[in-house]
Design a protein that fits this description.
Elements: E1 14-20, E2 34-41, E3 44-48, E4 51-55, E5 60-63, E6 69-73, E7 79-85, H1 97-107, E8 116-117, H2 122-140, H3 145-162, H4 172-191, H5 198-205, H6 209-220, H7 224-242, H8 247-253, H9 259-270, H10 274-279
Antiparallel strand pairs: 1-7, 2-5, 2-7, 3-4, 3-6, 5-8
Helix pairs in contact: 2-3, 4-5, 5-6
Length: 280
């Protein structure tokens, strides 16, 4: 889904979120802000567009704005920071031309950098160091910490631009395919309670059913029907906790006509029955 929320304050669009074993896996979503992940403990599988990475302690992943991304933890013992910010906070009040040009390079995905940084080369190690400083400034909040954060973010952008090839134009075909996939995800989330066929989902992407299924799984990390069922179960879990509706009614409201089949699928994703989940 297209995530619409304010990160930070109206005057400083920047925030850090702690993600640990108490957080659920991130479902496929995208937003207008950049996101930087910094591994503290354990490991997490991160899907970004068509790529899959495993982030471990001391590593960084930089997720470009508007990219579809999600995560899956291998176990429940993990911890990472998620830094979310509007890249426009880096431009001055006069929005100098040179600043805007560099920021637009990053926002338009014209800088061809490796999203996963393990510190294998000097400039990657510098970026990881800057990310660590950003986290420290944010939590310690010394006087002028916003300046420290902006300075470190500018240094990160400099390292990306100075050490990686810059393309004149982003791959328009790939951009169009990803936008169509976003449209399909929004369609699923708006119509999950109804019967949805692969043909209908593929039509939203303007792709053949065969190509759509392959492309969807490559980007999202699961088949279209797995994603649909997973989304239905997440909505059912919310209704089980927030309402007193019967399990049969909840099953029907999230798109299952057979309560026994619903219970089977629920157990597949939640490792317990709907009743056990409601009472936990």
């Amino acid at each position: 889904m297209n995530e619409k929320r304010q990160h930070g304050t109206p005057f400083f669009h920047f925030s850090i979120y702690d993600n640990d074993k108490t957080f659920p896996d991130m479902h496929p979503h995208w937003h207008d802000e950049f996101e930087i992940l910094y591994g503290i403990k354990g490991n997490v599988e991160v899907h970004i567009g068509e790529d899959v990475f495993v982030i471990e302690k001391g590593e960084v992943i930089i997720i470009p704005c508007k990219y579809i991304h999600s995560s899956n933890s291998f176990n429940r013992s993990f911890f990472f920071h998620a830094i979310v910010f509007d890249p426009d906070i880096l431009s001055g009040s006069l929005r100098e031309t040179y600043e805007m040009n560099y920021i637009e390079m990053i926002k338009e995905h014209r800088v061809n950098y490796n999203l996963h940084m393990k510190g294998l080369v000097d400039w990657e190690r510098d970026i990881i160091l800057h990310v660590g400083n950003i986290i420290r400034y944010y939590y310690e909040k010394p006087t002028g910490y916003e300046l420290g954060i902006k300075g470190a973010l500018c240094s990160i952008f400099f390292e990306l631009i100075a050490n990686n090839p810059v393309m004149n134009k982003y791959d328009s075909k790939k951009k169009l395919e990803l936008q169509r996939l976003k449209n399909t995800i929004v369609y699923i989330q708006n119509n999950y309670s109804n019967k949805i066929s692969v043909a209908k989902m593929a039509d939203k992407c303007n792709m053949s059913a065969y190509y759509f299924c392959r492309f969807f799984k490559k980007v999202i990390g699961m088949s279209p029907f797995d994603y649909l069922n997973n989304y239905r179960i997440q909505e059912a879990a919310r209704l089980l906790k927030e309402t007193d509706s019967s399990i049969t009614l909840i099953a029907y409201n999230v798109g299952f006509n057979d309560s026994s089949y619903f219970s089977k699928i629920f157990h597949k994703y939640k490792k317990c029955t709907p009743s056990e989940f409601r009472n936990s």
